[in-house]
From TrEMBL:
Residues 38-65, 78-104 are annotated as: Disordered. The chain crosses the membrane at residues 12-29. Keywords: Membrane, Transmembrane, Transmembrane helix. This is Methyltransferase domain-containing protein. It holds the Pfam family Methyltransf_22. PANTHER family: METHYLTRANSFERASE-LIKE PROTEIN 24, METHYLTRANSFERASE-LIKE PROTEIN 24 ISOFORM X1. The keyword Nucleotide-binding does not apply. Residues 124-297 form the Methyltransferase domain. It comes from Perca fluviatilis (European perch). InterPro entries: Methyltranfer_dom (IPR025714), METTL24 (IPR026913). Residues 56-65, 78-93 have a biased composition (Basic and acidic residues). Residues 43-55 have a biased composition (Polar residues).
Amino acid sequence: MGRERLTRGLLLRLVVLLTAVCVCIHVYLETRWREAPAPLGRPTQSSQNWGQQSRTKPDVEEQDRSIKRRISYVRTLKKDSQAKKRDINREDPSPPCCPPLRPHRKTPRWHIDLEHWAGESHSLEDEAKRFLNYITTPQVTCASLAREEAAQEGTKGAWAACVDPKYSLTHRIQSKHCRVYSFGLGVDDRSLERSLARAGCEVHCFDPSLKQSHLQQAEMWLHRLSVDWRDPNPAIVAQRQYANTKKLATILNDFGHRQVDVLKADMESAEWKILENFILEGVLDSVGQLLLELHLHWAGFEVGGDDPSVVRYWFSLLKELEHANFRLFHVHSDPAKPHLFLHKNVLNASSAYTLSWVNTEWKP
């Protein structure tokens, strides 16, 4: 009996001791957990609640006021900057000026800008009258012309370049930097090219009917090549091993030329599409003077539409030249040519005109 009581007493004391040890361990761990720093990751819900409870009301109000001050400061800066801009605009108003007729575009365009119809009736006579008046009225004067040799024999030469000192060609000739491009098919008379070559210009004559690819003749270079409004199909070029026609931009790139002082072209009714390519690709910025023969007896290659629309298209192309700072200084019509205007006798117009423009803003 005594042994049983002794055993129960020892067990009871042992249980009490273990309980006390467990309580101490629990209190120790709880204290260490509360004193440990918060983890760097996303806080738990319990830690957020504990942090919110630990913040006092004055601290919350002070932080809210600082946030409001920061926001108000940023907005005030924006308003002040706008007000300053308005004040500057009031103090220094930009002087009124007239915008250019066309913005200067260096990126390729897809189509030209057609001019308004000459009249409400959209008739051929109205369009022809406006067009013919435009191509027969020089816009600037040229005190000195370089013409074909025929002009020196008493007859008026068709082709003429302007060597007036107020334009750049004279200075380019004197500095030996003049360059001339002449495009044609089977051209026999190259008197203008020869006179410019003797003056010191670097002359390149392009003729797809030549037998040799490149040939130097006296003061000029001859090339079996011509200008077109599109580059040849690569498959056709591979079959023929060479191309007879290229766009002007491609020719300039192939020859390594950046400027052409005088560009002369007699393209036998392909001039309209070629001129359109000049305008759309912006290569006219590289040309100082443009000498062109226009053929009016028919619409021209790949030019469609009824007669009034064709003449409106022609006129729009020439107006694009004017927007590119080209001004007409020389006009010639051959009296021996038939008087045909789109297969008709319209206002006694000739079937061919030779025109010369100078780029008044050209500074190579």
